[in-house]
Amino acid sequence: MKPKLPNPFKPSKLNILSMLVTKLTSFLNHPLTIKQLKHIHALILINGLNHLEPIIITQIISNPSNHYPAAIRYLRSLIRYSKHPNIIARTSVIQFLYKNGKFKEALGEYLHMQRSGLLPCSFVVATAIKACMRLGDRVNGIRLHGQVYGYGLCGDVHVGTSLVGFYSKFGDTEIAAKVFDEMSERNAASCLIRRYLESGNLSMAERLFSEMGCKDIDSWNYMVSWYAGTGDMEKAIATFGPMPVKTSASWAAMIAGYVDSGNMEIARNFYDVMPEQNVVCCIKMIDGYSNNGFVESAREVFDEMGEKDQLLYDAMIACYANNGRSKEAFQLFDEMLQPNVNIKPNTVTLANVINLCSQSGNLIFGSWIHETLMKQMRIMMDDQVGVALIELYAKCGRVDKAFGLFHGLQKKHAGVYTTMILACSKSGWNHDAIKLFEEMLEANICPNLVTFSGLLTALNHAGTVQINHGLDYANSLAPQRPSNHKTWVGGSYNRVTELAQYSFQNH
Question: How many CB atoms lie within 10 A of CB 405?
């Protein structure tokens, strides 16, 4: 009997998995929605490719459109139930939660990591201590301090400065000073100043700064930034003046401080004399001029910047938009797309331009961005662009297109529900408007006066019952209703619907 030879043309299981890994890795290199990531995660689990899970975690963290509550819950379940605990992935999640104000969740993930037997690095221990400080959790903070010695992190500058900030918040200055003395890096004085400032202890920061013999550049920057950020420009300039080396950060802090205090003339003087103008300072100047209506001055600083990036174009387009100069905004957007400039817009840029289209009723240009430009440039739809397009299509009577985009939104808020309800009521889609309102209540989203205006219009056109029920309903929703609230139903004073009353009785 002849031995059965393997078919050389049939791919082996190893080859199939290798191709699958290549495909999945390729997909994960592009921005994806949570729904798409869940599909890929299912393939990863089915095929035992758990080593790819950290890439999904990175995707969620790096994509701002995936930072809504349900996505964060999915992220936490992903990290907790992973078959291959990964210290780097867990550290990223903890730092992500902390940076997004989820202090309780960050601390919870840190404690779970400890229970998993993973040894935390100094950065994640420092983050957990800062989370305790933010939560006012003295007990867990002291407990973490005790564990620092077991981890061999006593004297670490990151952990030490976090502990100093923690004890300073609770007024334990003696323990804070002891921790500082244990720190191995003496330039940690600047870190200590930062911790004092973060905990709101300005007097201790000022005292330490004044007692420092040789001040490093970070300590100067922290003090200047704090004074400028809190609007104390007298102390800011008094500290900025004697700086031995004035960095771009210190110049930026001074310019931002004068812009925020409304003193554009002094801000411009600083901007003009700074050794090297940068995009951050230029954007701040444009924002300041925009808020004061000085569009020509904003365009002047924009034109003076040699190398421009997408953020700079965004700032100038927003300046034109905020000051009712849509023509110049469209022209600048067109310039941005030209081959000699070739700056790819992001979703923020597109949302700003689409909002302009909505304000000017330019459906053709807005549709071109949606149906042509985004596909050509492979720009993924996010909620910010989606909402802008919904408002455009709703305003221009294309309720069908608005509905399609509305159902694709990851997160729906009161504003977008109101836009859809108003659009439906104006276009005769009355039952859809009523259905949207009920859906809004079921989602525990609070309607506002404008929402109710659209609802009453829809109810009036749908044709039911008496206005008094509607007005009573208005009273229950809006104690601060406008004096002309009866005009919401457009004059048909003898007709409104009991459906609104019915909806409230059932929710």
Answer: 23
